[in-house]
Amino acid sequence: MANLLVTGGAGFIGSNFVHHVVAHTDHHVTVLDALTYAGNRASLDGLPDDRVRLIVGNITDAPLVDELFAGADAVIHYAAESHNDNSLHNPRPFLDTNIVGTYTLLEAARRHDTRLHHISTDEVYGDLELDDPERFTEQTPYNPSSPYSSTKAGSDLLVRAWVRSFGVRATISNCSNNYGPYQHIEKFIPRQITNVIRGVRPRLYGAGENVRDWIHADDHSSAVLTILERGEIGETYLIGADGERNNKDVVELILSLMGQPTDAYDHVTDRAGHDLRYAIDSTKLRTELGWLPSYGDFETGLAATIDWYRENEEWWAPAKDATEAFYAAKGQ
Ligand code: NAD
Ligand code: TDX
């Protein structure tokens, strides 16, 4: 049994991880989360008080971070500004949280010699052509496109430097696009599901040919636990579940699963600098650490996610109008 500190544990993937840890281990969890627009304490509802506690605070608050590291056996760092579209509109919070926040945690890890796992994204590698037979590996050079992905790339490089220069005991994982419960409705899949629930047509950026490599958030969680338990210090592991689909196919699948005509969506203004394709080769994680995803079938996972949004309208409804007003102002 260990005391885990989970930054960003009231966000989408972090809260899925906390639910996963409670279900599959006997670890205790302290969540450090600033509850920005993207954090929601309701995402931790139903978890046992004697195993999970939420500290509302900022990862750039060095004294608070220091105090929490003192009581942690390991830290799993999810907290970030995570949305590309927001980073195109106002990049500053991305620098503060993703760069300065990660730096603050690394300094605390160095002082306390705490094991740290840094959560990152495949977007640090830039994008691939649609017909490129290659996928991203741990050797792919960094080539981020957006303010979001460049700050994530910067945070990864800080982690690598703190491992090499100061002996910080850290690992990094770069995962592909997640889907599942508790995802903010600004993101592609929940935006379209909640649009259909509200009787609004889904919105596809540009032609919709862009490809994302989908993985269920629960599979991301099992991969992170595996790395925490068996990963080698200083190593990077790519996490993916062979889930490549283009956006048009995903919208059509959502419409079909929700009983709508599959052409009942609109094309809207494309994202500036829109990455074409992401694809992960997770051979290293599978062969060296023996990890395998459980959600083999995207369609089944997507149907369960649709059910979750139908059953949890009180969780997402308060954010819907403001989210859509943000997009409407940009013609999206
Ligand atoms: P999210 O936006 O849903 O959640 C982020 C959480 O971090 C929120 O709860 C927010 O309140 C908190 N937070 C933000 N700034 C903070 C700060 N300064 N101090 C403390 N807490 C703060 O994001 P997500 O989609 O769950 O992503 C989590 C992590 O996973 C991020 O590091 C992201 O880069 C990475 N990632 C996401 C995906 C994906 O598909 N969503 C894929 C790969 C990697
Ligand atoms: O309304 C939309 N219509 C649309 O076509 C939205 C919101 C998005 N899109 C497109 C853009 C992307 O090609 O769908 C795709 C997915 O978009 P997002 O959900 O915004 O995700 P993406 O930009 O791919 O980044 C996500 O995966 C990697 C996460 O938000 C990141 O945090 C993660 O690092």
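^ thymidine-5'-diphospho-beta-D-xylose complex. The chain has eleven helices and 13 strands. The chain has a mean pLDDT of 98.
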